[in-house]
Amino acid sequence: MSAGSIVVTSTIEVANVEPADTNGVGLTDLTGLNWVDFEISPHTPGYMDPEKIREYAMNRTNKVYSLDDQSGICVVDGLVELI
Domain range holding 24? Predict the structure, then answer.
């Protein structure tokens, strides 16, 4: 579900924030499905470093939501709800 939450955004670039998943297949097109107008960093804190995600978010045009393993996002008719 965490990879799926990244894929529905406009880009999967957040997966490259350290400690990142390695891009073993050498993807150059990091375009996501663009179903929502924000990005998601799952496993934050935990696997992802909150400070590095904060730095990443400062350079983005879209909002970046950091989610721990107990949280989720529900989007209905464009209304975003953190759960």
Answer: 2-82
Q: How far apart are CA 19 and CA 5, in angstroms?
A: 18
Single pTM value for the model: 0.86
HEC profile for the chain?
CHHHHHHCCCECHHHHCCCCCCCCCCCCCCECCCCCCEEEECCCCCCCCHHHHHHHHHCCCCEEEECCCCCCEEEECCEEEEC
In contact, 40 and 75? CB cutoff 8 Å: no
Per residue in 35-70, pLDDT tens?
A: 999 999 999 998 889 999 999 999 999 999 999 999
How far apart (Å, rounded) are the C-alpha atoms in residues 10 and 1? 17
Report the number of distinct structural domains present in the chain: 1
**What pLDDT does residue 52 have?**
94
